[in-house]
Amino acid sequence: MTQRLWAALSEVQDPEMPVNLVDLGVIYAIHEADGVVEVDLTFTAMGCPASDFILDDVRERLLREPGVSEVRITVVWDPPWTTARMTEAGRDTLEAWGLAV
Fold it and tell me: Which CATH number does the domain 2-96 belong to among 3.30.300.130, 3.40.50.300, 3.10.180.10, 3.40.190.10?
């Protein structure tokens, strides 16, 4: 089931950049047990102006998955996010938009 949840979050776009959260590397972990999904995620910067939108989008998307009844999100800052966490697809997307990574 966890792979399905990762795939679901790959549909959630960062509101400020044209890349999904999985390729951006901000999703650190996903755990599921008895319909409760726990997500560890970070932001690209402290004080991210889109943080509330991202949290709402993650919660909303996961709750659409069959069998998911609750979503708990933990924002983690350690390890800090860096561009090294991005997937190759994420880097390619940002570079195509003219953003250096």
Answer: 3.30.300.130
